[in-house]
TrEMBL record:
It holds the Pfam family Endonuclease_NS. Keywords: Signal. It comes from Characodon lateralis. It comes from the Eukaryota. Residues 69-300 form the ENPP1-3/EXOG-like endonuclease/phosphodiesterase domain. Residues 1-29 form the signal peptide. The keyword Signal applies. This is Endonuclease domain-containing 1 protein. SMART domains: Endonuclease_NS, NUC. Residues 68-286 form the DNA/RNA non-specific endonuclease/pyrophosphatase/phosphodiesterase domain.
Amino acid sequence: MTPTSANRVVSLAAIMIVLTSVVLQGVQAGVVSDFNHAERCKDSLYMGTPPRGYLSNAFKKICQRYEDKPRYATVYDPRRHIPIYSAYTFKKSDGEKKVDFPWMFEPQLASEKSSSNMEPFPQSTSMHMNFEDTQAVLEDYADVVQYERGQLNPDEHQADPMDKVSTYSLTNVVPQIREFNLGPWAEHQDIIRKRLNNYCRGKAFVVTGVTTSGHTIRRSNMDRVAVPEYMWSAYCCTEFDQNAPYFVRYKFPVFGAYGLNDRVNNQMVEVPLKNLEKFLKGRMAVDKNFQIFYNDCVPDN
C-alpha cells in the first residue's frame, strides 16, 4: 500500500468514526422527538409503540436515562410540572425499596444542550431556579405534608439496582394524597408485582399515568405542581401461565386499574383494558382513537 492510499484509508476510517459518533449522538436520549429507537427507550414500550391519542402538543417525551443507559419512557407536562405517564418493562422483584438515593431531575427539559442523563439535584437550592420553570424541584414537595411523591414507574417493579435508582427522578413522580399513596396505591402495586412475578412468563410492559384536575401545589404564590385527580395503570404480558387459576388467568394478557387520588373513596378498581380506556376518555384530553397498548396487547399471530 502506498503512503497516499494508506493516508486515504486512515482518513476514511477517521471520517467513519466521526460519522458514527454523530449518528450515536443523534439518538442520545433525554428529551426526544419520538421513542423510535432502542437508545430512545423504544424497548420500554409494547411493540415499540407509545400510547396514542393524546391531543396536547405541549408534552415532552423523555427517554429516562441513567448512567448512559435508557431505563424507561415518560411523557411529561412542563407546564403542570408532572409526568402524564411513564412506560416501563416490569422486572421480577422482591418488592424491596431503595430509599437511600438522592432525587434527580431532567437537565434537558431546561436546556437541550445539557446532559441526556438524569442528574441528582445540586446541593445549592439557588441552582434549582435554573430549571424550575420546566419541571418540579425538591422545594415543591418540601412543605406539603398531605402529599407523598408517588412514582409512576415504582422502584418495587424493578430489580437491577441502577434501574431502581433511575425511578427516583421527579419527572417520574406526581403528588399523591398520603392516605392513597400508603394505602390503596401501594397495595395495588404489590398485587401487580406478585401477579406478574408468578404468572407472566415473558416480558411485561406497564404504562402508569394520571388524569389532571384543578388542584395544584403552590409555592411563593405560584402554581407549581398539578395534583392528579385519578391514577391509572395497565400491564401487557402476552406470554403467561395458561394453567393459572381462573381468577388470575382472565386478567391476562392485559388488564388495567384506576383509583381516586384522595383520602376517601380511593380504592383501586381493576377493570379490562377497554373499560379503563373508556373511563379515561371522559377525563383526559384524548381523541376517540386513544389506545394504551398497540393492538390492545393482542399479539400478531
